[in-house]
Fold:
Amino acid sequence: MPEPPSIDEIAQAAKSNYRTVEEMVVAAIREAVLSGIYGPGDKLPQEKLAQALGASRIPVRAALRQLEAEGLVVFSPHRGATVRTLAPADVEEIYELRILLETFALRSAIKQIKPEEIDELEAIAHEIDRVGEGEEWLRLRERFYSRLYVIAQKPLTAELILKLRADVGRYWLSLRLVDHSSTTHRIIIDAIRAGDAQNAEAWLAEHLTTVSKELQRRVAAQQTPSRT
Structure:
């Protein structure tokens, strides 16, 4: 799996996309966490971040507090700001919520999806299969499901799903995990095209359950101290 972009690359991109320093700093640090530059449990050095972003420590600290409210960052008296770490039980609960929300959104989308929208999703699915793994693969998957859930016209549901996906997505990058289920998107496209909500939901629930178990296993292994 390719390495994530550097903090300097993220900073340059953020500077060109946001009008205020505050917006730029929040976006850049969030991207650094979600892209795996800073993995679960890593310290977020305020001075280094300020230098990389060309900002003072004041907006950096404010950004870290905002990301704390979003659930990506935690503060401790001795270590300062660190990337939030999920326990296996947290991963399990996140995926349980995702199954509830995503099957609901999928069912809602199938009720009203248009043929041209299915074609659009299928084109994204082909790109996902072509890429196979890595950060671009994760972005394409995010694009696929975001588009599907926009079609569902359930904006609050889509927002909650996006948050839950981001919580575990950073673990996929930090642990260099790869989902080898390359044909899964074709399966769900076929079910959507057939208007078969029941099989589509059953497949999605089964797929998310399998992914959850693997991620729980890997997170538990990462958090278990090695024996000499």
Remarks:
- The radius of gyration is 19 Å.
- The first strand starts at residue 73 and ends at 76.
- The mean pLDDT is 84.
